[in-house]
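Researcher: Following up on the earlier apo prediction. This time include the ligand. It's zinc ion, with the SMILES given after the sequence.
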Amino acid sequence: NVFDLKVLSYEEVVNAIRSNDPHRFLFTIETYPEYGKYHWTGHRSCHVSLPPEEARRIGNICPVCHKKLTKGVDQRVDELADRPKGFRPEGVPGYKHLLPLSEIIQTVLGVSYPGAQSIWKVYNSLIRRFGNEYTVLLEAPLSELAKVVDVSIVDAVIRVREERVKVIPGYDGIYGEIRLHDEERKNIREDLRHKLKGNRREQRSLADYM
Ligand SMILES: [Zn+2]
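Model: Understood. Below is the ligand-bound prediction.
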């Protein structure tokens, strides 16, 4: 959580949390829920991935193999929900959505292997200059970023800050995917091939990139 307090005493932090005061408690950081491995309902081997409404409409049965689909988190939440989608109680601070920096770089470079040197070269140059992912993604001045990395990376950071990033929802054990531009559909066949070999990306928590 990000606080806007002049003097951060323990008591003030607790008070800011308790009061949920949007002026003191600016926003909560979370990753895109779609990025999770089980967001939508689907079948990995059948390449079927469906939002809750559509999965329900076909009785949660896979149109390819006719077996039961693996139900995603979104559908489970949907079934439990007692409030409309996107509902946010008044006065509650907003959310900032972040994504792992290395995977943003990977998307920009269009590299399929997450361990590729080209990714980590850019990553390390940013961390060396700004200290951590949080600063790179939220605070570093764009002009300073541009001195360290290519403009395409700066553009991606702008998109993350403005939440102009699309995440293709994960399903049945497959992670969601970052889309910075729609024209990246050309990589879909390559992505599919990569997925078929098994997606070995590790589960990341926010703690890994803060
Ligand atoms: Zn199936």
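Model: The longest strand covers residues 25-31.
Researcher: Noted. I'll compare it with the apo version next.
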